[in-house]
Design brief:
Elements (H helix, E strand, L loop, with lengths): L11 H14 L6 H6 L5 H14 L2 H11 L18 H32 L34 H10 L1 E3 L2 E3 L2 H6 L3 H15 L2 H24 L14 H32 L1
Antiparallel strand pairs: 1-2
Length: 271
């Protein structure tokens, strides 16, 4: 798995940035995207100083959320696998988990898109945003802890790995699945059900629509960012590794939005 600096381990400026991300993303956690960046000397601090104004103003989040909300979801086929039996509390908990990832993933796509432009050598020269106080929506419920993939039974680990991807040969299992693994029957269900979505033309259309909308919003917002106070990248030897990580999130974040929404629809039908 990718190296991460956990929220419990964060101190000083990184801890402050983490708290800002939780508040501005309106989510009870900091994503692995930022936790991984924090392991690279100076990178999270530099990135936040450069693109943070787009999030402090609420501009980047609002764009990402609006684009995701307008997606047309793939329709479930008549032979969609039956959901395993769950009690009402479990259905509610899984719905809350999906809601967190549906909220966070579009914002992370905006974060990754803005950072990627910096890594490609583009320099903002915009006027920034008026210094008005933006109020994020109410923070979503706290998530259960992710499972430790190294300690789960071998059959569950294999299912999780099948739901993941790789970065430079290292396995990456999205956090949504690592939390849902608290319900092994749901991971088994997803291992059977998600292949239907993977090959559905509507899924690819939704993914492309989401990325196209994000890319257009990133270009517009990047042009508004003020000039960097520190143009030099910290520890520039990490540049290629970070670009590869951003590319991974460009693959997995649309999945979190689309699949998270579909799972939420299935859960609501069970209530």
């Amino acid at each position: 798995m990718l190296a991460e600096l956990s929220e419990d381990e964060a101190t000083g400026e990184i801890a402050h940035i983490y708290s800002q991300i939780r508040r501005l993303w309106a989510a009870p956690y900091v994503s692995s995207l930022q936790r991984n960046l924090a392991t690279k000397f100076g990178w999270l601090e530099w990135t936040w100083s450069a693109i943070g104004p787009a999030f402090s103003s609420g501009t980047a989040q609002s764009a990402g959320w609006g684009i995701a909300a307008d997606l047309t979801l793939p329709e479930l086929p008549p032979d969609w696998p039956a959901l395993p039996h769950l009690d009402k509390a479990d259905i509610q908990a899984i719905g809350d988990i999906c809601a967190n990832f549906i909220r966070v993933a579009p914002v992370n796509l905006m974060f990754a898109g803005l950072l990627r432009r910096l890594l490609l050598g583009l320099m903002p020269r915009g006027a920034g945003w008026p210094s008005i106080m933006w109020s994020p929506p109410e923070t979503l419920p706290v998530l259960p802890a992710m499972v430790d993939i190294a300690t789960v039974p071998a059959d569950l680990r294999a299912c999780l790995m099948n739901l993941g991807t790789e970065v430079k040969g290292e396995p990456v299992v999205p956090g949504l699945y690592r939390i849902l693994a608290r319900w092994p029957q749901i991971i088994d269900y997803l291992g059977t059900a998600l292949p239907y979505l993977e090959v559905a033309p509507e899924t690819e259309a939704a993914r492309l629509a989401l990325l196209a909308g994000i890319d257009a919003a990133v270009e517009e917002i990047f042009a508004q960012l003020p000039a960097l106070s520190s143009p030099e990248m910290p520890a520039p030897h990490f540049r290629e590794e970070i670009l590869a990580t951003l590319e991974t999130y460009r693959r997995t974040s649309p999945e979190m939005v689309i699949y998270g929404k579909v799972i939420s629809v299935v859960m609501k039908a069970e209530r």
